[in-house]
Amino acid sequence: MVPPEPRSPDLLGGPPGSSGVWRRLLVVSVTVVATYDLVFLAMIGEVVPPLLAGAVLTVLGVGLLPRFRRCGVTVLGSTSLLLLVAMLPFVAAHLPHPSSPLDFTHAAVALLGRTAAVLAAFGTWRHASPALGRRVATLVVALLAVSLVVSGVAVIATMSASEVAGDVVAELADAAFPASLTVPSGGAIHLDNRDRFRHTPTVPDMSLGVEPPAMTIVRFTVDPAPGTPDVICDVPGREPMSAQLILE
Prior knowledge:
Blueprint: H1 20-44, H2 49-64, H3 69-86, H4 88-94, H5 101-126, H6 130-157, E1 168-172, E2 180-183, E3 188-193, E4 201-202, E5 216-221, E6 230-233, E7 241-247
Parallel strand pairs: 1-3, 2-7
Antiparallel strand pairs: 3-5, 4-6, 6-7
C-alpha cells in the first residue's frame, strides 16, 4: 500500500489548513461591513471619508489574498482595527436607539463585523483552532440576528405623537431643519422627522429632551426665556445641521 502524501503546510506557515476557517471569516466579515457602509452612505446621502477609505482598503486587501496572503491579512486586519476604534463614538451614540433601524443596524454591523475581522486576522496569524473560528462566526451571526429582531420590535413599538391644536408644526427632511421656527413661550412643537435616521435637536444650555427616531413624529414643549437661540443636531458622523429658534 502506498502511503498518502503528506499535506503541505498552511501558506502562512502553520499546520495544514490551520488558517482556512479564520481567513474565510476575515473575508466575509470585511466584505459584509464594507458593503453595508456603502449602502449606508447611499441612503443618508452623505460622504464619510473613513467609510469610503475602509471600502477601498477592503477591496485592496481581498485582492492581495490569493497571491500575497500575509500582506492581504495584514491590510484587512489593521484596517478593521483602525476603523473599529474610529467608529466607537458613532456606535456608542446609535446602539441605544434601535427604533432608528438604519443607524442601529449600521452600528451593530460595524461593531460586530469589524471585531470579527480583527479576531479573524489574529487567528489567521496565530494559526488558532479552526473550531474556535467557527464558534466566533456562529456567535457573530447570532448577535446580528438578535440586533435585527430588537430593532424590528422597537420600530413596531414606537408610536408617533398626535398633533394638538395650536402646535407649531415643523418638518425634518433631507437632513435639514427649517431655517427658522417661531414658538410662543410655553408652546409645543409638533416635529415630523421624515429622514431614515434619527436627529437630536439640541439648544446649547437648554434641555429639549427630544430625539425623534427615523420616520417618526414627536411633540415637545418649549418654555425658556424669549430669545433666538440656534438649534443644532449633534449626531456623530453627520453633516452639521442648524436652525434658528425664535422664542416669543
